[in-house]
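Format notes (please read before filing issues)

Several people have asked whether sequences and structure tokens are stored in separate files. They are not. Every record keeps both together, in the order shown below: the sequence lines, then the token lines. Line labels are part of the format and must not be stripped during preprocessing.
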Amino acid sequence: MPFDALKGLQEELRRREELHTHVEKALLSEDIIKEISDVLIKLEIGSKVRIVFYRNGKYYELKGEILKINPTYKFLTTVSKKIYFDDIKEIEILEL
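Then the structure lines:
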């Protein structure tokens, strides 16, 4: 803005908006955790997936290709994101 009468107002408004849109991470049932684990076991490098995951107070949906799977540190990497297994709410392997 060329003229900001109240210095820092825009930043404060953005910060407060983020606080109101923040959601808590859902607690998953044992059945859902098992379903996610079953899919994770089937994943291979190059698999196309749809993942709903939690990061920084929000849920995101991503469709992409798996580039790396690290079972020791419990994360997978897609073209654009590193996603920890504990942050996954939903995952499905997409058909080609």
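For reference, the curators noted about this record: The chain has a mean pLDDT of 89. The helical segments are 9-21, 30-42.
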